[in-house]
């Protein structure tokens, strides 16, 4: 069937909104026209045939921290992938995702991430789970108070951004995949919604720079919600937890929506009533293999060396095939291999996980997700892609 994939025009926003309501809103009907586009509007692409808009996706540009001391990497955040129920099973979404990969490559977005409705579906197109995060509910009666709580103050959400950005930037640099302060979705984090206020609290010792913040919302059934918990010093951790202690007069539990796998929460509160769930940070993909590796810099513990790998990527043919990766004099090169026998063979899903760093290349080898003929080459590649834990505070 003939179709065209192109940007959705402003006059087509109403049709796009109806498709989003069908796919994600259970058909919720609204009489309101879509709001006028704002400067932070993100590109939405649609698949059109003779009957009109049949499927769509939205591409959000991010810059994400990757290696300490290096510039963030451009990342394509994928959202709003949808089609009408009656148009499913016709290859529309597959065509959209291949168009998406080409678009991200053309825009220099060397990596991509998304939150899947089904892991198996996006795995078919090269995305795979990366990282681990926690959702934790703690009983506030068990949270101790601390002297550092006296250094916590409330800040109106409307005035908070200049204070929060430097704190966030220092914290984000500790993790791989966290958006930089300019592309972090601040409006979503700070907005008041569901007829509830978002409260902002900042920890700052007198005479020192602000070093932590907490975004709090009162929830339902005696629970409060910690939308973001960012602390760059032990003092900030203790001070912000002390604030939670005093919320115990209004709520029984605090629900942390997202925490990194290396959270020090357990050093502040441990009790049988603490509830924890663990799941992947999101699904991610390498969009452009040579460009992604060229963006890396060997760490101080990485010896000069190289490896030849074979990548299988049926949906991004520019990645498919043999590559020689070398690291020398502080730079990484990734070029088409010229007859060199490969040391590592893997599909794009496993390569994406290895590049993001979690699960590690060694864990992938132990799980049978790759073939390695040379242990020393595998160790060198593992040292090249090793880095901070994967984490993000952004939903999209």
From TrEMBL:
Residue ranges annotated as transmembrane are: none
What residue stretches are annotated with the Enhanced intracellular survival protein domain? 289-391
Q: Name one GO biological process term.
A: aminoglycoside antibiotic catabolic process
| Record-level Gene Ontology MF annotations | aminoglycoside N-acetyltransferase activity
**Top-level division of the source organism's lineage:** Bacteria
Q: Which Pfam families match?
A: Acetyltransf_17 (PF17668), Acetyltransf_9 (PF13527), SCP2_2 (PF13530)
* PANTHER family given in the database record: N-ACETYLTRANSFERASE EIS (PTHR37817)
Q: What protein am I looking at?
A: N-acetyltransferase domain-containing protein
């Amino acid at each position: 069937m003939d179709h065209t994939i192109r940007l959705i025009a402003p006059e087509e926003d109403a049709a796009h909104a109806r498709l989003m309501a069908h796919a994600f809103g259970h058909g919720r009907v609204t009489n309101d026209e879509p709001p006028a586009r704002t400067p932070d509007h993100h590109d939405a692409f649609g698949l059109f045939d003779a009957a009109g808009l049949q499927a769509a996706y939205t591409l959000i540009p991010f810059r994400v921290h990757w290696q300490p001391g290096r510039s963030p990497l451009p990342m394509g955040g994928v959202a709003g992938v949808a089609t009408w129920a009656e148009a499913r099973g016709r290859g529309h979404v597959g065509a959209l995702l291949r168009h998406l990969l080409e678009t991200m490559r053309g825009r220099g977005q060397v990596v991509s991430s998304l939150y899947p409705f089904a892991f198996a579906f996006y795995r078919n197109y090269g995305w795979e789970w990366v990282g681990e995060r926690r959702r934790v509910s703690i009983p506030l009666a068990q949270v101790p108070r601390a002297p550092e709580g006296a250094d916590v103050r409330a800040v109106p959400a409307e005035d908070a951004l200049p204070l929060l950005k430097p704190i966030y930037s220092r914290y984000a640099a500790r993790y791989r995949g966290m958006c930089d302060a300019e592309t972090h979705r601040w409006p979503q984090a700070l907005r008041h919604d569901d007829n509830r206020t978002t409260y902002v609290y900042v920890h700052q010792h007198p005479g020192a720079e602000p070093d932590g913040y907490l975004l709090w919302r009162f929830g339902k059934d005696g629970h409060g919600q910690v939308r973001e918990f960012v602390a760059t010093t032990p003092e900030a951790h203790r001070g912000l937890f002390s604030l939670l202690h005093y919320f115990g007069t209004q709520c029984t539990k605090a629900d942390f929506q997202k925490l990194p796998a290396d959270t020090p929460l357990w050093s502040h509160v441990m009790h049988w009533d603490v509830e924890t769930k663990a799941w992947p940070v999101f699904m991610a993909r390498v969009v452009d293999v040579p460009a992604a590796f060229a963006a890396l810099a060997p760490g101080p513990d990485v010896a000069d060396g190289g490896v030849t790998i074979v990548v299988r990527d049926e949906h991004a043919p520019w990645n498919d095939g043999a590559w020689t990766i070398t690291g020398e004099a502080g730079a990484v090169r990734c070029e088409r291999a010229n007859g060199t026998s490969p040391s590592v063979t893997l599909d794009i899903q496993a390569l994406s996980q290895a590049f993001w760093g979690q699960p590690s290349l060694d864990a992938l080898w132990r799980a049978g997700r790759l073939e390695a003929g040379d242990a020393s080459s595998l160790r060198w590649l593992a040292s090249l892609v090793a880095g901070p834990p994967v984490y993000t505070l952004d939903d999209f």
